[in-house]
Specification:
286 residues, four-stranded mixed β-sheet, YefM-like fold, Jelly Rolls, mainly beta, 20 strands, eight-stranded antiparallel β-sheet, 2 helices
Length: 286
């Protein structure tokens, strides 16, 4: 069978040769050098007509209004690199692979309507690390308002002098009587109630001048810290009172402020003297 010769209009009286039969009538699809040649030959295509274009190896059908690629070069992959995604703008297009940890997200400004971006939901982000060594008071820098909750991790706080002093916590440098906390603490095998109303700070833990793991440690969760109608916090701490005497506290605190929390201050509540050691890690939680 001869190779397809494309499209030919037969007129009354034409002699149908063997070449015509093999090159035109016996072929299942029209063959053209390119789209221009096809359009010049087939000026009034009908829905369902099909053709093959040699220059692009594309197989196309006529939809009733346009020639549409259905295979071959018309659907050749635009992908070149591991992780690429097949996209579409006005034609098939390559969406290059993103970087580790990114997710594919809708983006109307991108040519293909999608783009790789850093994941926005969930997880914890370390915002700041505060060192308490050699100071009586330390205040965080401005905390971004782009998170839902804050978590403070307190590690190895101890004093240079004055045993059994408390580590205190204030929001927005507010020293007014806007803090309330209550709960219980366990010491020496017995538990006691703990209630403080309308005070000037949240008490976190009582620690000694001891070093290492026996010093003050804790975890503070501050919920919806950007609220301007009061903020709730949970406090869990563990400290040493000297020797083998330890105190564990579990408290619920409420800050009756009228502004979103942007800074947090940790201080030596008994007055006088500095921290000898301690680190506060501040995390933002989506």
């Amino acid at each position: 069978m001869a190779a397809g010769q494309g499209f030919k209009t037969f007129a009354t009286g034409d002699v149908l040769t063997a070449a015509d039969t093999n090159g035109y009538l016996m072929q299942g699809i029209w063959v053209f050098a390119n789209a221009a040649a096809r359009d010049a030959a087939v000026t009034s295509p009908q829905e369902g007509n099909a053709c093959y274009l040699k220059d692009t190896d594309a197989v196309q059908t006529y939809s009733g209004s346009a020639w549409v690629a259905i295979g071959g070069g018309g659907l050749s992959s635009p992908l070149t690199t591991k992780g690429d995604v097949w996209g579409y703008s006005t034609t098939n297009a390559r969406v290059p692979v993103g970087t580790n940890g990114q997710v594919l997200t809708a983006d109307s400004t991108a040519a293909t309507g999608v783009a790789w971006a850093t994941a926005g939901g969930g997880g914890m982000t370390l915002l700041q690390t505060l060192s308490l060594s050699g100071v009586e008071t330390v205040t965080s820098s401005s905390i971004a308002s782009t998170y839902t909750n804050l978590i403070f991790v307190i590690k190895n706080v101890y004093w240079g002098s004055s045993n059994n002093s408390d580590l205190g916590m204030r929001f927005n440098s507010d020293t007014g009587s806007n803090y309330n906390y209550r709960g219980f603490f366990e010491q020496g095998g017995s538990a006691s109630g703990d209630e403080n109303t309308n005070v000037s700070a949240i008490g976190l833990c009582t620690v000694n001048t001891l070093t290492g793991g026996a010093s003050g440690n804790g975890l503070v969760n501050v919920y919806r810290y950007t609220d301007t109608t009061g903020v709730l916090a949970s406090v869990q701490t563990f400290g040493n009172l000297g020797g083998t005497t330890y105190r564990a506290a579990n408290r619920l605190a409420y800050y009756n402020g009228s502004s979103a929390i942007s800074t947090v201050t940790f201080y030596y509540s008994q007055g006088g003297g500095n921290f000898a050691n301690g680190t506060i890690y501040i995390y933002g939680v989506k």
